[in-house]
Amino acid sequence: MRTVYVNGSYLPETEAHVSIFDRGFLFADGVYEVTLVLGGKLVDFAAHLHRLHRSLNELRIAPPVSDDDLLDIHRALIRQNQIDEGLIYLQVTRGAADRDFLFPDAATPRTLVLFTQKKAILNNPVAERGQRVITIEDLRWRRCDIKTVQLLYPSLAKMEAKSRGADDAWLVRDGFVTEGTSNNAYIVTRNGTIVTRDLSTDILHGVTRHSVLQCAHDLQLKVEERPFAVGEIGEAAEAFTTSSSGLVNPVVEIDGATIGDGNPGPIAKRLRHIYIQRSRDTAI
Ligand code: PDD
């Protein structure tokens, strides 16, 4: 059984509880992070902390504990659950208060929960064969840059993809791809340019996106940060997604049409390889 963390205590997962009045439960009034663990170490931890603070700040939720404490908790959970490869989920909510649309007093203790997921991240059969993706309208709210726990629409979109025999969905606003349900989206044009949407309130500022674009820069690959149209995907040489759980994950089919030769492309494969190396080298 897993040991999880809730509000200062390390407990068996069956004994960890949160109030029914928690605003995360009633209003989706909370934010989260998912950090990759490789070789028992945290990948890009500083960037996850940075984004956590940004999300909290946008929602005016005060950090529940210090950054040093957060690092200690992550490491304690890795140790206690013997995680070599997997993910750590962290969630902060505005805490428990009588139901009211107005925020409770700022002194209300925030809820802090963390748990581990043991998972084969490197050996991923979908990454080997390439993902099949559908496009679907992006009906999320307009602050997708804040990593809130309101994930119902992405969940519905993923179910729609599954019901159509695909692995995931790319979300589309005004004819342009914003991002995947839980990843950032990229195409590689026939002249070898990597294209991914520029940072704005329309997408989550992916930690993996930042690192992978740095890898691309180091490899002297051409990168354009701009919205790309759905019509450009069919013309692309390759496509891929990035996320902490999927790393660099090739896409080989969009709405039933083959991308490139239908196999994971060379640039996606190279970036996946380099990104994994870089992550192993820099994990803490
Ligand atoms: N999802 N875009 C969205 C909408 C996401 O939910 C995620 C992450 C990303 C990629 O961000 P990062 O590279 O920092 O993981 C982009 C996480 C993994 C999840 O919800 O499980």
From TrEMBL:
Cited InterPro entries: Aminotrans_IV, Aminotrans_IV_CS, Aminotransferase-like, BCAT-like_C, BCAT-like_N, Class-IV_PLP-Dep_Aminotrnsfr
Similarity-based family: Belongs to the class-IV pyridoxal-phosphate-dependent aminotransferase family.
Pfam families membership: Aminotran_4 (PF01063)
GTP-binding is among the record's keywords: no
The protein's role, per its UniProt record: Acts on leucine, isoleucine and valine.
Names of required cofactors: pyridoxal 5'-phosphate
Protein name: Probable branched-chain-amino-acid aminotransferase
EC number: 2.6.1.42
Catalysis performed (reactions): L-isoleucine + 2-oxoglutarate = (S)-3-methyl-2-oxopentanoate + L-glutamate; L-leucine + 2-oxoglutarate = 4-methyl-2-oxopentanoate + L-glutamate; L-valine + 2-oxoglutarate = 3-methyl-2-oxobutanoate + L-glutamate
Keyword list, A-Z: Amino-acid biosynthesis, Aminotransferase, Branched-chain amino acid biosynthesis, Pyridoxal phosphate, Transferase
Entry's Gene Ontology BP terms: amino acid biosynthetic process; branched-chain amino acid biosynthetic process
Top EC group: transferase
A GO CC annotation given for this chain: cytosol
Entry-linked Gene3D superfamilies: 3.30.470.10, D-amino Acid Aminotransferase, subunit A, domain 2
Domain of life: Bacteria
Regions that span the bilayer: none
Record lineage: Bacteria, Pseudomonadati, Pseudomonadota, Alphaproteobacteria, Hyphomicrobiales
Metabolic or biological pathway, per its Swiss-Prot or TrEMBL entry: Amino-acid biosynthesis; L-isoleucine biosynthesis; L-isoleucine from 2-oxobutanoate: step 4/4; Amino-acid biosynthesis; L-leucine biosynthesis; L-leucine from 3-methyl-2-oxobutanoate: step 4/4; Amino-acid biosynthesis; L-valine biosynthesis; L-valine from pyruvate: step 4/4
GO molecular function: branched-chain-amino-acid transaminase activity
